[in-house]
């Protein structure tokens, strides 16, 4: 089963986007090779839903964080070798010999460069094999070849560089030797070499991501089976903010809804996005911007932060919000374990309707104990009505401290419901009314 996160959620949390400098993908995309970038993209598109797989990947990142090494291969060499292998070779040696002979003859007669390109491809592959051999010996000497994330890579490298058919490769080769080597590399060992390249890209991702985690002070989450039905996080921050204020959050089957209040600019949206990003990255097995995180595996995450209207369909902003709530309600009602974020429910309608709808929807969601919800609103009066619904709702707020007429924000959660409203103060401080 795939982890669920639709386009709205991915956009709300700015998770994807190679060309978006502010995306979470870009934060981790400091790899040097195209192969590693493709793998990183795949990891972002397909979070995991198995606790053991998540913990295994986290352990691999942690290993390289504890034992940092620079990535030992050049991007150009890996890329050219991959291109050489993709071309392949004939399925039998006589045909391979005939093909390379034709290319050499064409090079002599009509100055065709195909033969030189073939020789360069072989040379690049041989050079990379020498690098593999050196690294393999180093890993074996240091005892990293067993019971470490290097183990699969080591096994793959051994099966190639220690094969008798690839021993004693000289730089000077006859046409027959060149054809034989091309046949071995691009046909006989093609699949093994491609698999080893894939493992090499995986190692690069481990090295790069763990280095970023160490530099930024991220930690690694512990995944639990779905039936545990808990999520406990300490020191949650937004990974894109270097000076973010940490907060602590906790959910379980008996306390599955967080009702969040606070004035404009108090930090509600940032906190909710930070939590959603943390949940998503945790299911990838990636480091998270938190001091600690322990969580039960979920089926997916849904958010409603920046719901756009749809002029083509004639949907107003409010109707788009209603459809988003309907979509989430259908998924929740399908017995899925989900993390749900609603930032300012029903802000596209009048205060009375927004009050009634927020109250009804929030109260209804408390019944789905296998799902966790964060619901924010400016309509703090809803919180007072929700207190009669039982103990399944947590009430927390982000406070505002007034210094004269200037609001200051702590960005630190407190228990309870705030009545802070500083909208008009901010408007007056900006001198808008004086302009008018």
UniProtKB/TrEMBL annotation:
One Pfam family in the UniProt entry: MutS_V
Domain named DNA mismatch repair proteins mutS family: residues: 255-434
Annotated GO MF terms: ATP binding; ATP-dependent DNA damage sensor activity; mismatched DNA binding
Domain of life: Bacteria
InterPro entries the UniProt entry points to: DNA_mismatch_repair_MutS_C, DNA_mismatch_repair_MutS_sf, MutS, P-loop_NTPase
GO biological process: mismatch repair
Cellular component, GO, one term: cytosol
Keywords: ATP-binding, DNA-binding, Nucleotide-binding
Descriptive protein name: MutS domain III
Protein's organism: Chitinophaga ginsengisegetis
Species lineage: Bacteria, Pseudomonadati, Bacteroidota, Chitinophagia, Chitinophagales
């Amino acid at each position: 089963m795939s982890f669920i996160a639709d386009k709205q959620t991915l956009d709300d949390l700015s998770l994807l986007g190679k060309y978006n400098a502010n995306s979470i993908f870009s934060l981790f995309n400091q790899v040097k090779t195209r192969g590693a970038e493709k793998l990183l993209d795949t990891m972002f598109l397909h979070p995991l839903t198995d606790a053991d797989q998540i913990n295994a990947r986290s352990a691999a990142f942690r290993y390289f964080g504890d034992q940092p090494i620079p990535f030992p291969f050049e991007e150009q060499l890996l890329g050219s070798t991959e291109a050489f292998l993709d071309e392949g070779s004939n399925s039998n040696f006589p045909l391979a010999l005939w093909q390379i002979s034709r290319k050499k003859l064409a090079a002599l007669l009509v100055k065709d460069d195909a033969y030189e390109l073939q020789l360069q491809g072989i040379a690049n592959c041989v050079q990379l094999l020498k690098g593999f051999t050196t690294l393999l010996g180093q890993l074996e000497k240091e005892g990293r070849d067993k019971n470490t994330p290097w183990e699969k890579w080591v096994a793959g490298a051994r099966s190639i560089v220690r094969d008798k058919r690839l021993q004693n490769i000289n730089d000077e080769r006859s046409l027959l030797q060149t054809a034989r080597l091309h046949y071995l590399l691009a046909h006989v060992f093609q699949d093994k070499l491609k698999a080893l390249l894939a493992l090499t890209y995986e190692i690069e991702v481990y090295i790069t991501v763990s280095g970023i985690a160490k530099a930024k002070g991220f930690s690694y989450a512990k995944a639990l089976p779905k039936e545990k039905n808990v999520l406990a996080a300490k020191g949650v921050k937004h990974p894109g903010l270097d000076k973010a204020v940490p907060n602590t959050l906790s959910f379980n089957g008996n306390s599955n809804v967080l009702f969040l209040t606070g004035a404009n600019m108090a930090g509600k949206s940032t906190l909710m996005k930070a939590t959603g990003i943390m949940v998503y990255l945790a299911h990838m097995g990636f480091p998270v911007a938190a001091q600690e995180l322990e969580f039960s595996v979920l089926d997916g995450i849904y958010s409603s932060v920046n719901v756009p209207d749809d002029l083509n369909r004639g949907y107003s902003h409010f109707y788009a919000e209603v459809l988003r709530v309907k979509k989430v309600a259908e998924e929740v009602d399908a017995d899925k374990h989900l993390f749900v974020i609603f930032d300012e429910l029903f802000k596209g309608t009048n205060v009375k309707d927004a009050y009634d709808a927020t109250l009804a929807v929030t109260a209804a969601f408390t019944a789905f104990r296998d799902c966790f919800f964060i619901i924010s609103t400016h309509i703090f009066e809803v919180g007072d009505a929700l207190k009669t619904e039982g103990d399944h709702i947590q009430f927390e707020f982000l406070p505002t401290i007034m210094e004269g007429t200037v609001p200051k924000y702590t960005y630190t959660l407190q228990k309870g419901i705030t009545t802070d409203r500083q909208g008009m103060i901010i408007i007056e401080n900006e001198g808008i009314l004086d302009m008018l």
